[in-house]
Protein 1
Amino acid sequence: MVLLTMGAALLACTMNLGGPERLPSPPAPSDAAATEVSQSWSSALAGALVTGQLTVIVTEEQLTSALAARLARDEQPVLHSPAVYLREGTIQIYGLAQEGWFEATVRLVITPVLDQEGRLGFELTSADFGPFPAPDGLRSSLSGVLSEALAGPMGTLATGIRVTSVAVSEGDLAIVAELR
């Protein structure tokens, strides 16, 4: 009877595999901050029509909120409880991934890059899934979500915009571009 009870308890539980520790003070997602990302792009594009230059600054809270909103639209999101940190020239994404009974903390470290034509891209420099390297599917899926959130608004105008610089500092991501 004891073994049966223990077996039932194990089936009802999720086993946490651990993983990288989140940084302190994770940014809290909000609906308002999620919409601020697209509003920032709209304002920057409106200003660019006058000046020819576009500047967008996005915060950790805004990116966390946009990522959480985007993941919430998926039936089976690859990541839960996301937190985006903008530190040391990188975009660091933390969250929880669950597969069956196993749950693990995920950390993706992404570096924004520019190609010769001024197109913004993202290079995944490190990925941890609990104590293991993150699966390729998880890495590519989250990189795609991030690309959609950051570079997506520029994608519709890709032929008319050239990114001149991108910088990540403590808590902010700045993108500067010019109209061609």
Protein 2
Amino acid sequence: MDLFDTHCHVQSAGQSSEGERATRELWAKAGDTSVDEIVERAHAVGVRQMICVGCDLKDSELAIEVAANRGGLFASIGIHPHEAQHYSGSSQKGLLDAFAGLVDRDKVVAVGECGLDYFYSHSPKEQQIEILKFQMDLAVKHHLPMIFHVREAFDDFWPIFDEYAAMAGQNTPLRGVLHSFTDSEAHLAKALERGLYIGVNGIATFAKNPAQLAMYRAIPLKNLLLETDAPFLTPSPHRGTICEPYHISVTASFLANLRGDDLEGLATASTSNAQRLFNVN
């Protein structure tokens, strides 16, 4: 199989001070492992391409650095909604200018992970919206797809998305993926109406809610992307271990069985979808 992990945070593996703190600390629990060892394990099960997703300025810089000289690795630059408070307001213009300067760096294929998260209150809603709009401005200006993190915030997210989709226009439509999608079929339908892709990870393998499982079945194959969110969200039956990109093969197998899809066909379609969205081969 040819698999594409569209959302992982391997750039923090083996780091003692760089990278997003919680991610770095979780990788440390995996022991003395390196990015190259993680990539090698992924390649062994057919995961040929991965996007290293940034969550703040320094983490995005690290994602670019890690992807730079490794075949099949790409970077996305993002400011996570949890981090919005640290970038909001006129006093933080220097940080935002530095972040915007990353957009033209080699192997940057997307903007995100960015969005709105109202499940937690790490940053006020107003600041989350401000920083999301800043990143959407950047993506529209540079015609890049987006990786969205939206949790219990779709009522605010859809009007913002529609505003920027209209700004982008038909010739360069606003493109993106709803990362780690676990919401309702109603919001799935709204995403599909807007041409968005749906990112599915290990959460699907331990979901118990029949409505959520029905939602996973309802995702059209042409809109499906596979991801791990490594080192988080390890799929069953490997819960309790650190998630790595190679685990995407477990999620792919689960989804194929759940949906009644041919496994190789699902893998091929999801990889083609990712290559199309992120404009990579």
Protein 3
Amino acid sequence: MPRKNTLIHTLFVNILASMLLLAFPAFSQTAPLEQHKAAKPLPTLEYVDSEGKTHKLAAKSRLTILHLWATWCAPCLDEIPVLDAVATAYKDKGVSVLALSLDGKNTDKVQDFYTKHNIKTLPSYFDYQMKVFRSLKLKGLPASIFIDENGKEIARIDGPADWKSAEVKKLLNQK
């Protein structure tokens, strides 16, 4: 009997994976930077740190990048080390990066990933119940929201970002 359940589970996973690949053929391509003509107010956004303490999003720098990701998201795994390098390179230029994991309460899984990939600049924060994700009406992961010093959204990338693109660099270097 357990063998039948395993077979059914494997079949289900394969069908689901095939459907996702058909639905999202550009899965590994980068998503465009969508800059807004006018800054958009954000709802109150709360997240937790690795000790379970709740924080509210507040603009603390010239530009804050709110990045949502998960360890089960393949493009996210490629992007986090690059984003860590961006955070390091732009930290003295008034850019802060806040990476929120959607791994539920699997804080150990995120910490293991950070350790394995030598992530030094990004602290680990969590959106346990996907409230931030839903509040921002995101389409999927990864997603990056660019927030100005007044706490308003000025741009976003719904999907994998090209952090070396001219558009993104221009936004990061903006005064």
Protein 4
Amino acid sequence: MISVQDLRFNNLKIPSLRIPAGITSIIGPNGCGKTTFLRLCAGITVPESGSIVINGVLPRECEVGWVNEFPDRNFIFDSVIEEVSSPLRFRHLPETEVMIKTRRILDIMGLTSLSGRPIRELSGGEKVLVAVAAAVVTCPDLLVLDECDSHLDTACSHQLYQILSGLSIPYIVRSTQDMETAYQADQLICLEGGSIQFLGPPESVGTSLSDTPFFPLSWRCGYQHLS
């Protein structure tokens, strides 16, 4: 369980929140606090007050994978295989183990053919997949994705989350502007003005958002049909 208690940072104020295992989507208008909340979950930012703990441990004390909206900002190394293997090398794992785990995740992500390519030559979508591969190669306790799918078409985005769902990552917390993707989750959190407005399964939250931009078109059509 990810537990949030009396959390404050800038305009973000969350008195209490529990995020169960699975996929949680964070939605809401620009400036509502989505990226701030994700950075706090990832341990990139420290709360001004209050706390976030992941299974009783602070984010900076557990394994967290992070991918932001701008792929180029995720990279340290020049080639795909160097970038994806780097989190394992930073842990000083044996070379054989590094290469086995790196090649496994490249295969899972469909990136094997790109392993020797310079990252600068990749498309935006390919860069996203490389960044995600580097974020999950260590089998993190929590994967945080901040609108990284903005560089992917709908089919690739859906395929990415199918892959991630099969990796047994305990917690995936993400933000996205694509409501079709957002609603493919176990839980939705809708933020507005730095506060949680709605929280729960997509079917529950959707009933309160059906007349807003934060409702999938496919669900809207079905909702109108049922009405």
